[in-house]
Amino acid sequence: MEITDFKSQLQQIVSDVGFSSVGITDPSKVDQSIKEKFMDFIKNDWNAGMDWLEKRINERIAPENLWPSVKSILVFTDDYTPEEDPLEKLEDKDLTNLSVFVTKRDYHKVVKSKLKIVASWVKKKLDCDLKIFVDTAPVMEKPLAQLSGLGWQGKHTNLVSRDLGNWFFIGVMYIDKSLPVDEPEEDNCGSCTKCLDVCPTNAFAGAYKLDARKCIAYLTIEHKGAIDKEFRALIGNRVFGCDDCLAICPWNKFAQIARNVNYRDRFSDLTLERAINFSDTEFRKFFSGTAVKRLGSTRFLRNVIYAMGNSGNKEYIVSLERFLNYPVDYISEAASWSISELKKNE
Asked: What does the pLDDT read at residue 337?
């Protein structure tokens, strides 16, 4: 089969399964500058408590170390652009605010199911061996996406496309056949700093430099234990993740609402009052099959308690008082802090 025919047919099947774009690069394109940026991220402790990023570094920064047979890398984007501006929901302090990527089907499963369909076709067409990855292996998805021409890493460190905005899940396929590569995308952020300026906690040490220790997404999803008091009021009603830097990006004016129905069904009306009353069983049932479930009911409760403290609604004090003697220390301390916040200026 002619390689040109392969690329055109690949683009067709990628569109058919619902991916928004595909690009091709090869392992040799991962140059020293990309490796140094990642190493600086680790050396500065910007990975916070995400210790797994410090493991298998050689495999992460060099694809051939992860799989010696790799000759070409295919990168796919699956957009999940929301219908409404996520920043507007921050204004309703009685609602939980969950990141846009939290839909009622875990994106890992959705993207992987699509990748498997494409992988079956690629294997047949190229008679090759391959590996697929969806955010679960030491793979630098965003730099590979830029090298494949799908977009560039913006100043907020996320992938941005001139045609599709910046709401993406990324899937990666390593194959053991050499293919012509696409031209890398250039940086098109220009002088814009909106994503840096909008960050509630000033989590950016500079353009393209995210310090996860200050990032609300990290604090509400990955961080264990109590969240530092300096960040609590800034979290607002965000109980799982933060989308501010993504939502403010001007390139989103070119984005289309997510075509995949799996990414449209969101938890947009979950109130703080209902959320704080979840038992562990109710939490697991409510968030079954979603990314939130792995957070666990205790840390979710912590986030909800902080959100109540930030609401300004003194009626929540009664609900919060039930947790003052909670057996988990950081929960009882969170309840005490939130009650104090609500009683300010009485």
From this structure: 98
* Domain end residue (candidates: 157, 175, 193): 175
- Residue closest to 154 by CA, chosen among 185, 182, 188, 183: 188
Q: Which of 158, 175, 192 is the last residue of a domain?
A: 175
Contact 145, 171 (CB under 8 A): no
- E strand map for 123-217: 130-133, 152-153, 159-160, 168-175, 204-206, 209-210
Q: Establish if 310 belongs to a structural domain.
A: yes
Residues 55 and 138: their CA atoms lie apart, in Å, by 8
Catalytic residue, from 16, 26, 78, 135: name it: 135
Give yes or no: 135 in active site.
Answer: yes
Map tokens 């030491």 to a residue. Answer: 138
pLDDT block averages, 10 residues each, the chain of length 346 = 79 95 96 95 97 94 97 96 90 95 86 97 96 95 98 98 94 97 97 98 98 98 98 98 98 82 77 98 94 95 98 97 98 98 86
